[in-house]
Specification:
The protein is mainly alpha-helical and 236 residues long. Helix content is 53%, strand content 6%. It has a two-stranded antiparallel ribbon with strand order 1-2. A hairpin with a 7-residue loop joins strand 1 (64-70) and strand 2 (78-83). Helix 3 (28-37) packs across helix 4 (48-60) and helix 7 (121-151) packs antiparallel against helix 8.
Length: 236
């Protein structure tokens, strides 16, 4: 596998694994325990099965290598891994690639927001209030972790992601609260639904159609409206 392919295949969990092995050699179970103990699961989806698979894939790509097998008492054998030079390069290049340029991450919440009008207003309000409760709990948890790190003199560079997460959570919480307030007060018009069938009654103010170019939002700069048209051969 080429180096470009190796770098692009470094997933978020692979970044976490390589970063751990940059600290010291570990076996996969120790990696899992360390990630959970450090609450890295707030940043990366950590599951034992997926972690073992990630380590195996990194070994196949020669980004890590097995260093030895240990057995303690009646426990199963555990293979210890060490990061390789290629793995260190892949880790640093992948971090730089992510930090350098924002890319669409396609979070699922905006998708649901864009289609929330398909739900009756009372249900939408109930769901938004549930989300507000969860966001407040996550915000409190993030504050607790930041306070713990500060009290234990953990160098800030190791938990710099926490204030970023807090800012994003606080912004989302404020926005959802404002949205729910507008919806509840009637300031935001909503779809009407038939109480018997549950189907929308159709108020006649639906979204614009592609048939009317004047209602089509502008494309981002550099985006081709019709990708196929740009590759069409010119007439001979």
């Amino acid at each position: 596998m080429g180096e470009g392919q190796a770098h692009s295949s470094v997933t978020p969990l692979a970044i976490a694994v390589l970063a751990l092995l940059e600290e010291r050699p570990m076996h996969p179970y120790e990696m899992f325990q360390t990630l959970i103990a450090r609450r890295e699961d707030k940043l990366v989806k950590v599951r034992p099965g997926s972690l073992y698979h990630t380590v195996s894939r990194l070994a196949d790509q020669e980004l890590v290598r097995a260093e030895g097998v240990d057995r303690a008492g009646n426990r199963p054998e555990r293979t210890t891994y060490r990061i390789t030079g290629r793995g260190r390069d892949a880790l640093r290049n992948r971090i730089a690639e992510i930090v350098r340029r924002p890319v669409p991450e396609y979070p699922i919440f905006p998708v649901a927001l864009g289609e929330l009008h398909n739900l009756p207003k009372p249900e939408a309000l109930t769901l938004l209030r549930e989300r507000i409760g969860v966001l407040k709990a996550e915000l409190a948890d993030t504050d607790m972790l930041s306070a713990w790190a500060g009290e234990h003199a953990v160098p800030r560079r190791y938990w710099i992601a926490l204030p970023y997460l807090r800012t994003m959570l606080a912004a989302e919480l404020a926005w959802v609260e404002q949205f729910a307030a507008e919806l509840d007060s009637g300031a935001l018009e909503w779809e009407d639904f038939d109480p018997e069938t549950g189907a929308p009654t159709g108020s006649g103010d639906g979204p614009p159609t592609a048939a009317d170019p004047s209602t089509t939002p502008p494309l981002p700069r550099g985006r081709v409206a019709n990708p196929d048209a740009s590759s069409t051969d010119s007439p001979s």
